[in-house]
Structure formats: structure tokens, C-alpha cells
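Attaching the record inline, Q. Sequence:
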Amino acid sequence: MKKHISYFFILLYICIGCTPEKVQVLVPITERSLIPYPNEIAISEEGFLIDENTTIYAGTGLDSQAIAQQFSDRFTKTSGISLVTKNESKLATNSIHFVLDSSASEISNDEGYILKTSKDRIIIRAKTMSGLYMGLQTLFQLLPDEIESDIVNIAVVWLFLV
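Structure, as predicted:
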């Protein structure tokens, strides 16, 4: 009986010792293969951490809500973190915004978008659904490579750094 208890504690020790620690892998923007490559990149010193308190804002349009849902589904599948999505426009901290703005004169074509990041939020703004979709694809490419995985990886720190 004592032998079984000893084995149990040894097995328990091994299991606890094998719990993965969160790792942060940062790949500089200049070493990323972004497709399509942005016309302009402004590199920031601050990163945005996506965690269980991050909220996605999609506005009231069905197109932006569909893009937001695509991001949420893929992120949850990979990270195991469920993000709250709100169908409203509110400039909140610790948030990701998908904004369709047909009057955005600084965006020159239908597939164009603006992706702005800070330590408080990520904003993807486009004139059309195509532009918002392209912005989403760039966002995925700038996240850690584990975003492409089909298995949950709880050991990743989801830091977005541009």
C-alpha cells in the first residue's frame, strides 16, 4: 500500500512539473512575411496583450460583426480564451475594434484598411468589407504563429507588437 502511495506522489510531482509555462515569442515586424505588405508601417514600442478581459467591438453592421466573429472564433479555438464581442461602437480600453467607415477618405481603394495599435486597443478601419477582411488577415499574420494551430495552446502570451 505504501508503495502505491509513493508511486502516486511521484506521478503527481511529474505531472505538476510538466505544466507548461507561458512563453512569449516576439518576431519583429521586419521579419514577418505580410501578404499583402502594408504601404506604411509605424513601429510602436508598446504592445497590446490579448487576454480574457479583452473585448471585441464590431459596431452595428452585419459585415463588421461577421469579421469580428471570425477573429473571435479563430482566437478562441487556438488560445482557449473566449472573448466577449459587442455589437456597438465604443472606444474602450483593452479592446479590438472592427470598423466599417465608407467615408474614410484616407483609404484609397476597396481593399485598403488602416490598422492602428496601442497598449490599449487595436483598431482595424476600412471602407468596405473587403478591406476589413484584409485587415483581419494582417492581424492574424502579426499574432504569434500559434494562431494557425488547430489545438489549444495555453502556454502562449498573446502579445500583439507592431
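The first strand starts at residue 47 and ends at 49. The helical segments are 2-17, 62-79, 129-142.

More tomorrow.
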